[in-house]
Amino acid sequence: MHETSIVNSIMRTLELEFEAAQLHKMSAIHLKVGILSNIEPRLLHNAYSAYHLSDPTYQHVALHIESTSLKIQCDICSHITDVENYRFICAHCGRPSKNVIQGEEMLIHKVEFIDD
Ligand SMILES: [Zn+2]
Question: Which end of the chain has fewer CB atoms surrounding its CB within 10 Å, N or C?
Fold first, then answer.
């Protein structure tokens, strides 16, 4: 399953990024998931719950998923437009653009830790 490998790669990324002592105090993971990323937040939550069944180390860590909107940047005037209804047209000059700058990505936006 697609989402399972995404969860595995998120946890691996965090384990590379932070020291074990720090990971021990991790309380929440915030993800940004673009609407064109082919990732279904509900399935990602399910995969995250399933992950803890085999490895309960981080079962207390909350997962927050924020869906990011689709934005394009115009090649002609550099204006950034929020795409609605898949209309890839610059709101400033009216020219079509396929230059997507947000909405295709999946990234770890923020990690929270318990203060001691
Ligand atoms: Zn434009």
Answer: C
- Give the Cα separation of 21 and 24 in Å (integer): 5
Q: What's the CA gap between 9 and 85, in Å, rounded?
A: 31
Domains along the sequence of the chain with CATH:
2-68+103-113 (3.30.2320.50)
From the CA of 93, how far away is ligand 1's center (Å)? 4
Residues in the 5 Å CB sphere of ion ligand 1 = 74, 76-77, 79, 90, 92-93
Centroid of ligand 1 to alpha carbon of 32 (angstroms): 26
Query: pLDDT tens, 14-50?
Result: 999 999 999 999 999 999 999 999 999 999 999 999 9
82 CA distance to ligand 1 middle (Å): 12
**DSSP classification of residue 76:** T
